[in-house]
What we know:
Radius of gyration: 12 Å
Number of strands: 3
Shape: elongated
Helix content: 10-25%
Strand order of the largest sheet: 1-2-3
Number of domains: 1
Largest sheet: 3 strands, mixed
Amino acid sequence: MQVNSVCPGWTRTNLGGPEAPQSVEEGAETIVWLATRPDSGPTVGFFQHKTRIEW
């Protein structure tokens, strides 16, 4: 089992507002990428734009 977290970034939603620089699809890209990784994929990480970032 893998456990990761994602910062989707500033995304055009009701919360992010119309000025946000990325679409909902772009904001979801890293979430989908992590959810579909093989069992050997990354774990215990914090990611944004498919890149591990510091907490």
